[in-house]
Specification:
The protein has 244 residues and is of the alpha+beta class. The chain has 10 helices and 4 strands; from the N terminus they run βαβαββαααααααα. It is globular and about 55 Å long. Bound molecules: glutathione.
Length: 244
Amino acid sequence: MKQALITIDQISDTGAATVDFFGRPAPRLTLVSHALCPYVQRAAIMLAEKALPFERREVDLANKPGWFMSVSPLGKTPVLLVDGEAIFESAVICEYLDEAFAPRLHPAEALERARHRSWVEFGSSVLNAIAAFYNAPDEQALQACAAVLRSRFERIEATLAEGPYFAGSRFCIVDAVFAPVFRYFDCIDRIDDFGFWPGLPKLLAWRTALAERPSVASAVAPDYRSLLERFIWERGSVLSRRLR
Ligand SMILES: N[C@@H](CCC(=O)N[C@@H](CS)C(=O)NCC(=O)O)C(=O)O
């Protein structure tokens, strides 16, 4: 049967989408998670922005259980279970949530939306560069990784507009992608000054605005920072040895 699109007055006072864009009640949502996974954070931020209740189910990625492998074809977090149906890949999860539940975070215009998707990809490449950085086996590799990160940040600085968010005053999916990127540096900046930030005022303002957003703050547990420090310590990398 054809479903009618809902109107804005069908969204609750709290802004929570009690129904999806097609008027169906919100499904039961389970976010299959890992406490440190930045891709999981993207999905958690999206769920919070849409005020959707969800359950989090943590998985040990060092010892993946059978139930997890049965819902995660690539053996990775996040997976979003939607009334038991498994959706995997964080970018896909973000797009699904955006297409199904208000408020829309992606731009309405096709070219602008494509540009945002490009920067979502860029965000993933920054996450890969961060992983290379904290795994760097020696000082030379660490400095090379730091230079890659710095060049990525310069590139973002050149694309940012007036802020406070990526696309101006409205929070968007690119913001949900970069908030977990910046969160790493709350820990890394305490280890040493790697020269990431000088001369990048827009980037720093963006980082601050994202850290203050309630959906971003609530995407990780209170012990996130100590877990991340332990994770970096366990890398056996040159950065591990710099942790005090
Ligand atoms: N492209 C994936 C990347 C997800 C990913 O790399 N997740 C990591 C944790 S942060 C993972 O599950 N790693 C386990 C593994 O690769 O075995 C996405 O965007 O969802």
